[in-house]
Design goal:
alpha/beta; Rossmann fold; six-stranded mixed β-sheet
Length: about 500
């Protein structure tokens, strides 16, 4: 009897795929519920993740996406309930306790990244990647020559080969994220969980990240990818899971046609800076950090009502520039930084109380035990914490600021229990509560859903904030504040362009 070669080939391919799938985890959640700090976060969640599937996880700020990913990873535990189960299948064996397979799950997100700052884990980038090979948070032992070679190759694959010897905490926020992607790949995971992984990445590094995921597209590695930005959804996603009201709806992913991002046009509202309106002046400023010149010869003038966009690649010096304007970093000899109301030799506190800030570093540094309202009150006092009881007047101002950003319902919640996006809205309230002259916004819309981003952009455009000066560092064209008057592009710590707005951050050169 003749052999049907096509049938034989299909059988052989099916057997190969079956053997490949067996190397990866299959996860099933059955009737899962989760409470956090007295709130019901997840309700009767049922979800089956199979090898080879690429899941897009969506939901508004506070919907519970990060908690669901942590639950998959075994970092949080569901409520005991009839029929509730977490099942992990590996190599034909079924486990109902995630700790038996936790070392085979790689999880990358903002909270995991923030731990390095919190615990001051400041190892070299190649060593951080090496901890992925060792399946540990910190180095268990020095890397062997073979492990170091492998870690360096992974850094090259994400475009950071030249930074292998740099200390992790000296890297930009986006560079740290790519190092941790290389670490996740070094983990050799059987399940990959990605929580807003492109936050803080410039356009070039976003494409590098997506290309790495593209290389995984034809493997059987199951991936769960959470994002608020549809333009950042990788190609090849197969399924979608939508969280709303604690419940999960799942289905096949059918991507819509992506909206092209149009660069903001140059504004017609350019202002003339006068001595009376000038807030600060930076001239020929160089800033050194960790023995390295991060900024060199940077100049900038800012007046009331001006809107300045700062952009450039990861590591170009954007965050250092904003920190310098605030007073966190000193300008080297030969440069000048003048601030309104601060004569030479005087403390900066009076000026800083008139400056509102939003940044990933500030969000990490704020005390987690304070309520959202107390976090705003601390900002009114120009401090991180509280050294005296909150007055009635302060409480009213804090609630007014939270209401302004659509977050008054969070007033009594502990800051540390908020989702990343909810905490970011509280930072906006804190920044605006003290009637500032100046806002310093460093990637301010990180972790925010599209509705919240639109609402905050509209607030910045409102007539009540018309006299407020804004300096914003961003990688996204559609995040530019309305009425941009200046654009500053940095490259390697040096000004590449300064003048009227001519091109959006992240647009092609």
């Amino acid at each position: 009897m003749p052999i049907d070669l096509n049938v034989a080939r299909r059988r052989r391919n099916a057997m190969t795929a079956s053997r490949a799938a067996a190397r990866y985890l299959e996860v099933e959640l059955r009737h899962i519920a989760l409470q956090r700090d007295g709130r019901q976060v997840l309700r009767d969640v049922q979800w089956h993740i199979r090898p080879g599937e690429r899941w897009l996880l969506r939901g508004a700020n506070g919907a519970g996406k990060t908690q669901l990913l942590k639950l998959l990873a075994g970092d949080v535990w569901p409520q005991p309930a009839p029929g509730a189960q977490r099942l992990y299948t590996r190599d034909g064996e079924e486990y109902n306790e995630p700790w038996l397979v936790r070392e085979e799950i790689a999880y990358l997100g903002a909270e995991r990244q923030d731990r390095y700052e919190h615990y001051h884990w400041n190892h070299r980038a190649v060593t951080v990647v090496g901890t992925g090979l060792q399946h540990s948070d910190i180095p268990r032992e020095p890397l062997t020559r073979a492990a170091r070679t492998q870690a360096q190759a992974l850094l090259r694959s994400v475009g950071l080969g030249a930074l292998a010897a740099r200390r992790f905490l000296t890297l930009s926020y986006g560079e740290r994220r790519l190092v941790l992607l290389a670490r996740a790949l070094a983990w050799r995971p059987r399940l990959l969980l990605l929580d807003e992984p492109l936050n803080g990445l410039d356009a070039t590094h976003r494409q590098r990240f997506l290309r790495v995921l593209q290389r995984l597209r034809h493997s059987q590695l199951p991936v769960v990818y959470a994002t608020h930005r549809l333009e950042e959804v990788p190609a090849g996603m197969s399924h979608v899971a939508q969280l709303a009201g604690g419940r999960l709806r799942t289905g096949v992913w059918r991507p819509k046609r992506r909206r092209s991002i149009v660069a903001p046009r140059a504004t017609a509202h350019a202002r003339v800076t006068t001595a009376a309106s000038r807030l600060l002046r930076l001239r020929d400023a160089s800033v050194w950090r960790e023995g390295r010149a991060v900024l060199r010869g940077v100049s900038l003038e800012l007046a009331r009502g001006e809107r300045v966009v700062v952009h450039g690649a990861n590591g170009s010096g954007k965050s250092t520039l904003l920190g310098t304007l605030y007073g966190e970093h000193a300008v080297a000899n030969g440069g000048e930084l003048w601030r309104r109301g601060v004569p030479p030799g005087m403390p900066l506190h009076a000026f800083q109380r008139r400056v509102g800030r939003v940044s990933p570093e500030l969000q990490l540094a704020l005390p987690r035990q304070l309520t959202a309202a107390e976090t705003v009150v601390a900002g009114l006092r120009g401090s991180f914490g509280l050294d005296a009881p909150v007055t009635g007047a302060e409480q009213r101002r804090a609630r007014q600021a939270l209401r302004r950003v659509g977050a008054v319902a969070l007033a009594a919640r502990a800051f540390g229990t908020l989702s990343y996006g909810q905490a970011r809205r509280v930072l906006f309230a804190r920044a605006l509560a003290g009637a500032p002259w100046l806002l310093l916004l460093d990637e301010p819309y990180t972790g925010l859903d599209s509705a919240t981003r639109s609402a905050l952009r509209a607030l910045l455009h409102s007539s009540s904030l018309a006299r407020l000066a804004i300096v914003m560092a961003t990688h996204h064209a559609d995040d530019w504040p309305p009425g941009v008057t200046q654009q500053l592009e940095l490259a390697g710590g040096v000004v590449r362009y300064r003048g009227r707005a001519r091109r959006a951050a992240g647009s092609r050169r």
